[in-house]
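Researcher: I'm preparing a figure for a lab meeting and need a structural model of a single chain. I don't have an experimental structure, so a prediction will have to do for now. The sequence is pasted below. Please return the structure as tokens so I can convert it later.
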Amino acid sequence: MWPCLLLALALLGSVPASYPAPRQPPGVPAGDTTQLHYAVVKKLRTYSGAQRYCQDVYRGRLASVHSAARNQELQKLARTYHITISPWIGAVTSRRAGQWESYWEDSSPWNYANWAPTHPFHIVTTCTTLSVRDGLWRSRFCFQLRPFICQY
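Model: Understood. Here is the structure written out token by token.
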């Protein structure tokens, strides 16, 4: 009976416990196996319309940016689509508990920023664009129609 069981397990593709774990992709924190993908959408949407589009079409969010390298990557990606209007990314600046603060809509940590001089605005709630020209971020009124970058 044992030889039959071993043969059945071998045919089913069982793997011994000593088999090495899959390698972690470079740049991904240990334990996080999710790889982010990005899509530049040329359709013009308001910030909230862009958020809905990313969620409905990609099951994702507007892109959050956590490093200079990622910022440059997204800038180059947007350029390849020949976009002339700076696209939305997933940051908002608003007044919270009496203080102005910027935050990522996906609730990820605010650990990197690349604001243009005089930005972000601290007058009203604003949404954020990534310049395809210089890679700097700028505050814009959220009702403007713009292309956008989704992450999923």
